[in-house]
Amino acid sequence: SMGRQAELDLIVVGGGIVGLSTAVAAQDRGLAVLCFEAARPGAGQSAGRTRIFRHRHERPELVELAVRARREWERWEMRLGHRLVGDEGALMAGPDLEDHAHRFEAADVEYAEVDPSAQRRALPILASLGETALLDPKGGAIRIRDAVEALVGWLGERLVLAEVLGLEQADGGLEVHTSEGIWRARRTVVCAGSGTDRLARPLGLELPVRHGCQLRATFGVREGLAGERLACLLDRRDTAASGVYASQCEGRPCYTVGLHSSEVDLPDGTAPIPPAESLSPTVERTSRYVAENLPGLHPEPVELRLCRTTKLPWGNDAFAAWRQGPVTVFAGNNVFKFAPVIGPLLVDSAVSDDVAPELAVPAEVPA
What we know:
The protein is an alpha+beta fold and 367 residues long. It is 26% helix and 30% strand. The protein is globular and about 65 Å long.
C-alpha cells in the first residue's frame, strides 16, 4: 500500500479524546493529517458515560490550564451548536479548601463558599459536606460521547480505523505500520492510552507510566429527585480514602461514583482488567459511602465499570510529552478535561523542535 500514500505532515496514533483533539487541531491548521484508532474512537481510557470538568488542581499551573481548557470547550460548543460541559457546577469538600480558594483567586476562577442548604441546592441527593464546601460554578459533567462524536464528525475520513503495529524512522520522516498498510509522515504524535509505552519503547523511550484500573460504580437516583440537576462532587474529607469523585450521567437519572482508593495496579497496558466481582470490597466501600453521604441515591449500584489508568509518578493529574526525533509521545492521567488545549499543544510540540512548556516533565521530578 506504500504506492498510494503521499507523505503526510502528521499522523496521530490513538483516537481517544486527546488523539482526536490533536488531529482536529492539526486539520484546523491546514496540515495533512490522519488519526489511527484500533478499536472505536473513545473506546479506551476515554470510555464511559461521564467525566468531570473541574478547576480544582494541586498545582497552580494546572488551575490556569483548566481556565484555558474551559474556554476551548466553549469554542467546541460554539462550533457544534450545543453544550459539551454541563452547567451544574462542581462541589468540593475537604481539609484543603482554603488552599484551593487561594489558587482559584490567583487564576481568576469564580467560586462560592456554600453552607449545607446551598450544598443541597447544588446537589439535592446529598446529606451534607459539613459547614463549608466550595462550589466551582463553571465545573460540570463532560458529555463525553457527544464530545467524541463531534470530533469524529469534524475529522471525517481523516480518521482511519486501523491498529498501529509499530513506528520506524525512515530518511527524515517516519513509517507508520498499521493493520491496513504503511503510511509515511514527517511527524507522529502517539497518544494511545495504555498502549503508548509499548509503542514508545522500540524508539528508545522508557516512559515512567504506572498502569492500573479504577472502579466506577453507577447508582440510580431516587424517584422524587430523578429530574434534578446534580452538581459534580469532589470529596476529600476522608484523607484515608484519598477522595471520592462523582458526577451525573448523561441522559438518565444516575450518578457515577469513584473512590481514588479503588485503584488496582496492573503490570502493563496489555494485562487484562480483573472482573468487577473480584473487587467486591471496593464495591461495598463505594455503596457504604453512598448510603452515608448521598441518601438521594439507591445504594445498590446499577452498573460497575473498571477504567484503565496510566499514571505518572509526580501526581494524580500528571501528564507530559516526550520527543524522540520526529515522534512526540504523550501520557498522563485525568486528562479528558484538558483535551481541547492539549491537542493544540501536541501539534505545537510535533511541528516545532521542542515539547510545549505546558507538557514538559516538571524539572523537580526525579527521573
